[in-house]
Amino acid sequence: MLSIGYFTAVFSILFAALAIAILYVLPTAFYLYAWTMIKDE
After folding, report:
1. Phi and psi for 20 in degrees, rounded to 5?
2. In which domain of life is the source organism classified (predicted)?
3. Greater confidence, 13 or 4?
4. More confident of the two residues 8 and 2
5. What distance in Å separates the CA atoms of residue 38 and residue 1, rounded to the nearest whole number?
6. How far apart are the C-alpha atoms of 7 and 15, rounded to whole Å?
7. pLDDT value at residue 1
8. Is the pTM of this model over 0.90?
9. When comparing pLDDT for 5 and 14, which is higher?
10. Rounded CA gap, 16 and 12, in Å?
11. Burial 16-39 (b: 16+ CB within 10 A, else e)
12. pLDDT (average), residues 4-21
C-alpha cells in the first residue's frame, strides 16, 4: 500500500512539472514564432 501511495505521489509531481513546463514553453514558442513572422515582413 505504501509503494502505491509513493508511486502516485511521484507521478503527481512529474505530471505537475510537465504541465508547468508546457504552460511555459507553449507561450514562449508562440511568441518567438509571431516575432519571426513580424520580423520577416
Report:
1. -65, -40
2. Bacteria
3. 13
4. 8
5. 56
6. 12
7. 63
8. no
9. 14
10. 6
11. eeeeeeeeeeeeeeeeeeeeeeee
12. 94
For cell 507561450, name the residue.
27
What's the chain's length in residues?
Answer: 41
Which three cell numbers mark 18?
510537465
C-alpha–C-alpha distance, residues 18 and 26, integer Å = 12
DSSP secondary structure string for all residues of 1-41: -HHHHHHHHHHHHHHHHHHHHHHHHHHHHHHHHHHHHHHH-
Sign of CA dihedral 17, 19, 20, 26: positive
pLDDT digits over 14-29, tens only?
999 999 999 999 999 9
